[in-house]
Specification:
This protein is mainly α. The chain is 65% helix and 4% strand. Among the domains are: 45 residues; 57 residues, Multidrug-efflux Transporter Regulator, Chain: A, Domain 2 (Orthogonal Bundle). The chain has 9 helices and 2 strands; from the N terminus they run H-H-H-H-E-H-H-E-H-H-H. A two-stranded antiparallel ribbon has the order 1-2. Helix 5 packs across helix 6. The chain is elongated, with a radius of gyration of 32 Å. The model has no long low-confidence stretch (mean pLDDT 79).
Length: 152
C-alpha cells in the first residue's frame, strides 16, 4: 500500500495531536465517569423515556417549594379543580393576588388555611367535645352543617 505525499502529511498532522490527546487523560476519565452515570440511571429506570418521565414529574413537584403558586399549581397542590379555585375566589372565600400581566397567584399558606375550613372532625373529637358540653354526639357534623349554622 502506497501513500501520496499529501496523505503522509495528513497522517503526521493527526499523529502530532496524539500527545495533546493523551495529556488530557483526566478529561477523558471524567467523560467516561459521566457516561457511567448515564448508564447507571438507565439501568435504574429501564429506558431513557422512563428517566425523562421521572424528571418531568420531579420538576412538576418542585412548585411545592414556591411561596406563590399559579392557578394550575394551586389546583394540584390542594387537589381540587381549577374551576373550584376560581369559584372560591369569586365567592371571596380564598385570598388571591393579581399582579399586572399575570393570572391569579395564590399564597401557599392561604391555600392551607382555606383547605382547613373543610376539615371534618374525627369521631373521637366529636365525642370529646360532646362529652365536655354534655351533648350526645350521635350524628357527625359536616362542613355543610357548619356553613348552614353560620348563616343562621
Amino acid at each position: 500500500m502506497e501513500f501520496s505525499a499529501n496523505e503522509i502529511l495528513k497522517l503526521v498532522e493527526r499523529a502530532s495531536g496524539i500527545p495533546d490527546f493523551l495529556s488530557k487523560k483526566t478529561d477523558i476519565e471524567m467523560l467516561l465517569g459521566r457516561f457511567q452515570s448515564v448508564e447507571d440511571y438507565l439501568a435504574r429506570f429501564g429506558s431513557l423515556d422512563e428517566l425523562v418521565t421521572f424528571y418531568k414529574r420531579f420538576e412538576e413537584k418542585l412548585y411545592m417549594l414556591k411561596t406563590f403558586l399559579t392557578t394550575e399549581e394551586a389546583s394540584k397542590y390542594v387537589g381540587v379543580s381549577v374551576f373550584t379555585l376560581r369559584e372560591a375566589v369569586k365567592r371571596m372565600e380564598l385570598a388571591v393576588y393579581t399582579p399586572p400581566g399575570k393570572g391569579y397567584l395564590f399564597l401557599r399558606d392561604d391555600l392551607d388555611k382555606w383547605l382547613g375550613l373543610f376539615r371534618n372532625p374525627s369521631r373521637a373529637e366529636l365525642e370529646g367535645a360532646a362529652g365536655a358540653s354534655g351533648i350526645s354526639a350521635t350524628k357527625p357534623v359536616t362542613m355543610h352543617d357548619r356553613l348552614s349554622q353560620k348563616s343562621l
